Sequence to fold (238 residues):
Amino acid sequence: MNIYLLEDNLQQQKRIQYLIEHTEYTAPLTLNRFANPSALLRALKAEAKPTIILLDLEIKDIVHAGLSTAKAIRQYDSQSQIIIVTTHQELAIETYRYQIGVLDFIDKSKPESNFKQQLNEAISVALNHLELMSQREPVWLHLTQHPHLKFDLNDILYIASIPNSHNIEIHTTTRIYQLRANLKDCCQLHDDLLRVHAGYIINKYHAHYYNTQNKTMLMSNQDEVPVSRRYTKMAKSI
Fold:
C-alpha cells in the first residue's frame, strides 16, 4: 500500500522511512516522500484509494504550509487518514480549527522511542480505519421518482433541497447529483439518513461533530451543514 509523506528535511524523511520500513504492520507499506506540497497533491489525486498521509506543518519556512495542504486534500478526499508530524506543538489547537479531520498530532522532537511508538500506533489505527471502510457492504437506495438511479448509502454525505424549486442535491463522496425529488421522501430511504434542518438531511455515518457555536454539523468532506434548533439534541447525540 502506498502512503505519503510531506517533509522538506531530508534527514527527517530518512528517519521516518527507516522507522516505517523496520516495523511490521497489517499491510505492507511503501512510503512516497515529497518536499513540495504541489507534487504531493498531484500524486494523491492519482491515487485510486484512500490512503495514509503524513504531513509536516512547516515547509520551506512557511509555518502553515502543511495545514493549507491538508485543507486542499480535503476538498476532494474525505477518507484518507491524515497524521501531522511536526515540531510545532503550538499549532495543535489550530490544526483542529482547520477542520481537516486529523487522526493524530505527533511531535518530532520527542525522544526517539516515544516518537517511534506514537508514529507506529497512529499508522496502525489509520490502517484499521481504512480496512473497516473497505469492508462496508454497499447499501443500495432507490428514489421512487428515479427508478433508473441507485445510490450507495455509504457514499451519500448529505442531501439538500434547492430553494425555490422542487429539486434536491445529493452530495456524495465523488460528485453532486441534482434531481427533481422531495426531501421528505429521502428521510424514509434509510434510518441513517437524518433530518437536521428544513432543507437538509445528513448521513450520520459521515457526520464528524456538531459545532455548538455556529450550529452546524461538520461532515467527513469538511462541509458544514446547518442544524436547526428542533434537531439540536439529536445532532449532539450523533
Notes: The chain has two domains: 2-135, 140-237. DSSP finds seven helices and 15 strands in the chain.
